[in-house]
Amino acid sequence: MTMRAVLRLGGGAVDRLDTQLRRHLRQVTLQPFALYSAAVVRIGLAGLFLLFLLRELPHADRLWGPGSPFTPALLQETVQANGWDGFLGWWFTFLATDEPLVFWTLYVTAIVVSALYLLGWHTRALAFVFCFFVVAFYMRGFLANSGWAMLSMLFANYLVFCASGRRWSLDARRRARREREASGGRMSPAGISETEELRRRLVTVLHNAGMAVIAFQVMVVYGSAAMYKIQGETWREGTALYYALLSDDFSTWPELSSWFAGHGTLMAVLAYVTVFSQVLFPALVFNRRLKYCVVVVMMGTHLGIGVLMALPMFSAVSIVGDLVLLPDTFWLRAAALVRLLRAPPPTAARVE
Amino acid sequence: MNSAEPPAPGPVPGLAPQGTELSAPRRAVLRLCAALVAALAVAHAGMMLLDVAGDFPVSEKNAERVDSWMNPLFIQDWKIFAPDPPRHNQHLEVRVKRGERFGAWTDVTAHDNAAYRRQLLPSKEDQLTLRRATGQYRRWVREGKAPPETNRAARLLRDVVLIRLADMGQDRGEGIELRLRTTPIPPPGSNGPAPASSYLPLGYLRTPG
């Protein structure tokens, strides 16, 4: 083969790569990816936050309200000490008030906002309001924020950029009805102006970037959790779960926990499974089949942590995060399966 | 994300772009904005990595920039994933001073633990508030910075403890003395006598009048 032929071959490959890249770039502006996953994150996150606010109703006054030992003055000092009292300072101290009436009005508003966002009513506007409240609650409870609070705030922030109301929402239902009425039953999209097309493409770019960042965030969470664990001696020798289960701070049912802790070999194996699945997670999710295996393992560990180690909210929001990585085809098949299960038995349907 | 997946046939034609050709100026706007969004996303991802890899030389050099980009809205504190579970249990004990005499030691941690046990959905107040307040206070004790009256961590822990004492029906007295009881967890497979606890005095905080 002559040098020239090699160069020509290489040039062809570059050209192919170039056109392929162009096609991908064009698709990123044309096709909003993973709309179902975005909807699932919205529903999961808003539902969990709603559950959280309702569950903490009897404790809300002491956690975020006028009865909190973390007084508005202490919050103010904390915000200042961290240098966060800039132009967003009012947002971070938004819930800090000594007036019970003001606090409870805001609390009820947050409950209503979570419920509406869950249902997907004016989703994009509600995404901003929801994010506003989640951040405000995070900052007001800065003294005692859990992994759940941190993850939910991150997801709420990123979801602002995503089109999470396109599927499985009141918005989608209303739009579908209108389009059916407008086109007389046939689904034919009406032509749109060029400016509208440009707006839609910009929204699509933003959505795709937002979803990519959420997926990346999930990988970073697992990756860094694995790195921290590898540095720990107890994880290396396989006794980490033993000590974690016998900790007074993380045992919903101490008897059950100590029963598990009594099975040393099982605990060591599970400790290694935990570390390895977290180390491998960022790599495995790129494989279309292994993705499901690693997600199932992750859900198993989350369920165990949630029930045994008294961290249900954190486990639940982590599971929601894992679901980001499942493709639309998965959600469509899941939805079809649910429809099939809910459909009347065939004998009843055949009666005409 | 899943660029290799086939496009999903949505139930609604909906709001997706239709792929009509754009005029040159609009195409320029689209390209500029798309480039900007992509750059922001990549920058954010980079900052995220630098933030979680705090000991990395590049992270150390840019620590301030990373901090101002990420915190508090995109906080990444994944150390809570317990790098190394402690091999002991720690409880905060307090006793109230009334006049010249101290009352009996009370295990405040046990009070909170009893409240969260056997609940599928425990409250953050019983689970986290006292532990975090104690942790902050101990960090302050180690650093020995400001006198307790002006220190945030001390004021906070004092009020957290006073709320719990009130729940248990104890009065506030003139002040509270604190100590930390540490009980080792016996290593797996050992069946000797239960290990003895040790105590660390954590000082005395006056109750505000």
From TrEMBL, chain A:
Read off the SMART domains from this record.
HTTM
InterPro entries linked to this entry: HTTM-like, Sporulation_signal_mat
Q: How does it sit in the membrane?
A: Multi-pass membrane protein
Where is the chain membrane-spanning?
33-54, 101-119, 126-143, 149-168, 209-228, 260-285, 292-320
Where does this protein reside within or beyond the cell? Answer: Endomembrane system
Keyword set, alphabetical order: Membrane, Transmembrane, Transmembrane helix
Q: Where is the HTTM-like domain?
A: 30-330
Q: What is this protein called?
A: HTTM domain-containing protein
Q: Which organism is it from?
A: Streptomyces gossypii
From TrEMBL, chain B:
Chain intervals for the UniProt region annotation (Disordered): 183-209
Q: Which InterPro entries match?
A: DUF5819
Can you say what this protein is called? DUF5819 family protein
Report the source organism.
Streptomyces gossypii
